[in-house]
UniProtKB/TrEMBL annotation:
Pathway: Lipid metabolism; Phospholipid metabolism; CDP-diacylglycerol biosynthesis; CDP-diacylglycerol from sn-glycerol 3-phosphate: step 1/3
Top EC category: transferase
Family affiliation: Belongs to the GPAT/DAPAT family.
Lineage: Eukaryota, Viridiplantae, Streptophyta, Embryophyta, Tracheophyta
EC numbers on record: 2.3.1.15
Protein name as catalogued: Glycerol-3-phosphate acyltransferase, chloroplastic
Organism encoding this protein: Xanthoceras sorbifolium
Length: 457
């Protein structure tokens, strides 16, 4: 029996390595039991059951080979990678970190643009971002607004410049970078001043504790959610950090390629655990790259299968394939309908490796913080409007798939009905958050199925 410990500011995760035998197709395989120690210090050992089908037996062997190869590569390169990261930081220009005033910071943008380090369009976008962020933080009424703006924007511009000097490439599964620079806390500190916590709410916070229980037992949680802004991951983490820091820090987000390539967005993405995919909305933007994108998505699904096979994972997915947009006629915001095949494809692939998945619907309301462009854009480099505003997050109890199956005529019809049921629960929760935040009803907007609270108070 061996124990490995991984420490973070609030969480420790321990993996107790033991062996269990599973008789599959007259052969045996070994796998590890996992126990996760949450903030409460409780720890439970779990060996969830794994099942395979004959048609994926060859794929299972391939995945095992991938695991073995990955471990060897990581062991051989970890020291080299750490040295490389340290060297990048040490040799990096300090133009923005040395700025003591707004004038020096903005002059630094022009200096780096003239030196050719920053493309002119990016430099213009950085200046625009600075002004928009400044206006939003000042709107909060914080007496330290100017200090907060200068500090956060200096670090943001520094990270953008570093990536221009030495671009970072995301792997299909990207683990949040916490050292030597903590990109996770960087993102939290940047978005925090934009959240009006007095007018923000969490729905059914007790269900997050139940989710932690399931994670401790080795189950996987997949959160089926609407998607509003590039800041969604930070909003989720900020609203949960006081009650459920493990979920806040360890959630894995299925992310589209745009947040991995936009220079002003990449540094924030580097601080999140990501499964990197190409969105269906941009799959055909460049026809000659369509097949490459599909193959890349398949590799990403394999990575997700490996993670879920290990158990105790919490994954966020937006089946709409993109951010919510307002109705063009009423200008009312609402969750975009879920794309049924999106869920079906992932379930068909992942469940061949791992069956212990609990699907939970999650609703987000935070579009005012950083609304997307009115229309879906093909080009990278969108304008970023920013404001100080209340936000909301809510989860609903699990919808039993078998109950849906019982009411349907066939499995395919049941899966589609299940997708609609998940969407309907997201919409119901969204409307409650909307009444609380935009309708100024506050906690009185709660209904029997959605109990609102402000756990940070």
């Amino acid at each position: 029996m061996s124990t490995l410990s991984f420490a973070s500011p609030r969480v420790s995760v321990s993996l107790s390595s033991s062996i269990s035998r599973l008789n599959i197709f007259s052969s045996s395989i070994s796998r590890s039991c996992y126990s996760v120690s949450f903030r409460s210090g409780e720890r439970r050992s779990a060996c969830p059951c794994v099942s395979y089908s004959l048609k994926v037996k060859a794929m299972a062997k391939l995945v095992q080979n991938m695991e073995s190869t990955e471990k060897t590569v990581v062991a051989a390169s970890s020291t080299q990678d750490d040295d490389c990261k340290t060297n990048k930081e040490g040799n990096h220009s300090r133009t923005f970190l040395n700025a003591l005033t707004e004038h020096e910071l903005l002059s630094g943008i022009r200096k780096e643009a003239e030196a050719g380090t920053l493309p002119s369009n990016l430099a213009a976008g950085m200046e625009e971002l600075y002004q928009n962020y400044k206006n939003a933080v000042v709107q909060s009424g914080s007496p330290k607004a100017d200090e907060i703006v200068l500090s956060n924007m200096a670090v943001t511009f520094d990270r953008v410049l570093l990536d221009m000097e030495d671009p970072f490439n995301f792997s299909p599964y990207h683990k949040a970078m916490r050292e030597p620079f903590d990109y996770y806390m960087f993102g939290q500190n940047y978005i925090r001043p934009l959240v009006d916590f007095k007018n923000s709410y969490v729905g059914n916070v007790s269900l997050f504790y139940q989710m932690e229980e399931k994670l401790q037992q080795g189950h996987n949680i997949v959160l089926i959610s609407n998607h509003q802004t590039e800041a969604d991951p930070a909003i989720i983490s900020l609203l949960l950090e006081s009650t459920n820091p493990y979920i806040a820090e360890n959630m894995i987000y299925v992310a589209g390629d745009r947040v991995l390539t936009d220079p002003l967005c990449k540094p924030f993405s580097m601080g999140r655990n990501l499964i990197c995919v190409y969105s269906k909305k941009h799959m055909l933007d460049i026809p000659e790259l369509t097949e490459m994108k599909r193959k890349a998505n398949t590799r990403s699904l394999k990575e997700m299968a490996l993670l879920l096979r290990g158990g105790s994972q919490v994954v966020w997915i937006a089946p709409s394939g993109g951010r919510d947009r307002p109705d063009p006629h009423t200008e009312e915001w609402y969750p975009v309908s879920f794309y049924f095949p999106f869920l079906q494809e992932k379930e068909n692939f992942v469940c061949t490796f791992w069956c212990s998945i609990t699907y939970i619907s999650l609703a987000l309301l935070c579009y005012d913080i950083m609304p997307p462009p009115p229309q879906v854009e093909k080009e990278i480099g969108e304008k970023r409007a920013i404001s100080f505003h209340g936000t909301g997050l809510s989860v609903a109890p699990e919808i039993n798939f078998m109950d849906i199956v019982a009411a349907c005529g066939n499995p395919e019809e049941a899966k589609e009905a299940y997708t609609h049921a998940l969407y309907n629960t997201v919409t119901e929760q969204y409307n409650v958050l909307k009444s609380a935040i935009l309708g100024n009803q506050g906690l009185d907007a709660s209904i029997p199925s959605v109990s609102l609270s402000q756990p940070w108070n």
